[in-house]
Design brief:
Histone-fold, DNA damage, CENP-S/Mhf1, 4 helices, chromatin binding, about 80% helix
Length: about 110
């Protein structure tokens, strides 16, 4: 394994650990308010699912930008990510609108 690959693998493992920790805290907080228990196995599985979804979204965003002959992902790419989920698309469109409005107000 090349040193670059080892460094990248270590970085990915640290990201997975941080994600596991954050998801574990969120699940534990919800479980306490709902008077339920969540196993470590459940948290691990959920963490893997979220990690894979994040990787898939990143790949899609890069493809959307590349398809538009750009090297930079923009808000339109992010909104396009929600194309199969009406609720998510609405939330992303609203966030993009708010970001544009903040950007315009900062320029003034």
């Amino acid at each position: 394994m090349a040193p670059i690959d080892a460094a990248e693998d270590e970085k990915q493992e640290r990201l997975k650990a941080a994600l596991w920790h954050a998801i574990g805290q969120t699940v534990d907080a919800i479980a306490m308010t709902e008077k339920m228990n969540a196993s470590t196995r459940f948290i691990g599985s959920l963490s893997e699912l979220v990690y894979e979804k994040i990787n898939s979204a990143a790949t899609d965003l890069e493809a959307f930008a590349k398809n538009s002959d750009r090297n930079v992902i923009n808000a339109k790419d992010v909104v396009l990510l929600g194309r199969n989920n009406d609720f998510l698309r609405g939330v992303l469109q609203e966030q993009a609108k708010q970001a544009r409005e903040q950007d315009v107000s900062k320029r003034r």
